[in-house]
Hints:
The chain has 81 residues and is an all-beta fold.
Amino acid sequence: MNDESIINYCDYSSILIVNRRGQIKRLYTPFKVICMEDVPGIKAGTTLYVDEVSSTPESLLIYITQTGAYSHKSFTITATF
């Protein structure tokens, strides 16, 4: 997915993604993401699987992986539709 896509939290095991054409897809965990910038413990370019999703009180989407919990802004989703 690119930066122009919209990602919305559904529940701990899924998110909704909307592409530029307005198509909606529910994506269930585990789903694959690529780290776009170095974050603690993960180098840019690393592929990970998101095991669970969460949301902060400020509605920030959090990806939970085997290595920790990270803001979704540091990753891109590899799903296409």
